[in-house]
Amino acid sequence: MKKTIKNKNVFFVLSDIIAIILAYFISIHFKYILEDAVQKYFTIDTWVNIALAIVLYMAFFISGKIYKNIIRYVSPKLYIYIAMLTVCVGGVLTVISYVFSDYLLNWKCNLLATVFICAFVSGARAFAKLLYVEHSRKWKNNNLKNVLVIGAGQAGEWIVHSINESSSANYKICGMLDDDPRKKDMLVRGIPVLGSIDKVNEICKQRKIQEIIIAIPSLVGEGKKRIIELCAQVGIKVRTLPSINDIVSFKDLAENAANHVRDVSIEDLLARKPIVLNNEQLHEEIKDKTVLVTGGGGSIGSELCRQIAKHSPKTLIVLDIYENNAYDLQMELVHMYPEMDLRVVIASVRDRLKIRQVFEEYHPQIIFHAAAHKHVPLMEYNPGESIKNNVFGTYNVARAADEYGAEKFVLISTDKAVNPTNIMGATKRICEMIVQSMQEISKTEFVAVRFGNVLGSNGSVIPLFKKQIENREPLTVTHKDIIRYFMTIPEAAQLVLQAACYAKGGEIFVLDMGEPVKIYDLALNLIKLSGLKPFEDIDIIITGLRPGEKLYEELLMDEEGLKNTENSKIFIGHPIFTNMETLKKSLDKLEKAMIIQDKEQIKDIVAEVVPTYVRNPNNKKQEEVEEQNIC
Questions:
Q1: 129, 237, 388, 416: which one is catalytic?
Q2: 429: domain range?
């Protein structure tokens, strides 16, 4: 027999030989009465049969390469393979013993021995793997983290299995919690279900839990928010599996659940219900159309491009002045949609001639205008740049859309355009006025979509908080009572596309932002969910309102009505049209003021154009208005 067994696998060869002998002795014991069984152990036909069995089993096992398997990577597939080999050999031996019954054991003994051999050979490997994993984990991690798993369903079982199977996981699962009373005191792969989720604080103290893993991917909205808030009260690190909508492969999740666990994000605390979109309507709107997205490399712009690419546009044009973001998006889309006609244009919306060239070359049918300066304090100190980019950038693209006969122009606006107290919000209000004025003189359908803050976008407070926590720096909040509306980037992009389908021209679509979030509470929760203690591990500092910053944001102006659409998260504000000739005179004044670069003059003209613009948001009158609105 060719020597193919490595020295490190000699143990398994010997254990398998012993397993074969032991299996035959047990089968003999079952086949014969006790006295005959003892005598039968020492007969020639018994040992001839055992010798033949050893030769055949070893031949099959070695040729089947089961000794080449690394013990730490043994999987159920190997056990199935061993069972197949064992059945084959057992079948051969049963037939041989039946034919040569005078020289071998009874065929029933061989058949029974097959079952025991399969169990012993597989069991030896399972036991060896268990010892290896436990030894490796204790050797590599002398201080394993005590972990509590929330959710004793399928995903919870995957987590337990994944952690127990991994020699590198530095976790010790101490228990599970589940709101299903039928699961209480039951075991999931040997891990006890200790009670309902409401007992998380009590259980964590009893079991000295150091980390919580939420394993309920199907949980959304208020249910998920409730569990996360309960866990946050414990004051230890909380992690979670991704939601069911974010899971790419359930097979991969089942096999490597521990690798999919991520930190809990603020998105999980928003309690936002999943968006229901009319995908058929969206597909009809975009399919085989040439679509232009300005600011396509930004947070909202890039997500718009991803969503648009799903609906088979004829050509997708990504226009952005910042080439790095545009390049990254290009590589992503080329990989995901290799058949799509993708064009990336590096240009500024301020450049009227370049914008005309783009329209001349591609003749886009649908335009999503997301390019804008959005940082409130920076624009307060640079009002001229805000006017150039936001106002005249929008004007350039809007005029080109009209001139080249585009079907639809969609402006991405902001809640800061409503009763603005900063130059950024005021310029976005002028953009809305441009869009509504263009509707009066153009065949193109001009609309705006207005929403609040987007989680994770450039300039958002969340990335700042996360960076401060990572560096163990105090979190900076401008005011203890400041509130904001938040929406996720994919949610905002999807609703923008859906709103575009409803457009008839002149509307300002207002997105349902859900419940307002207190920034101070948000900071507290982020610290707690990171396993840190507010004001002990990390402080929170109140820095005071920044120039142009409000305590609250609005989504609708007083004079705008509100109409429902087919989508419960999208509303239509009543159009407030502005005469284009009158607006053009104001734009001419702004253009001249920018040449002089007089900040105060620019703001004075903006106040003439936008009557609701309040120059000084921190005066007494404005504070009284804000206090009244909050109450």
A1: 416
A2: 279-458+493-514+555-624
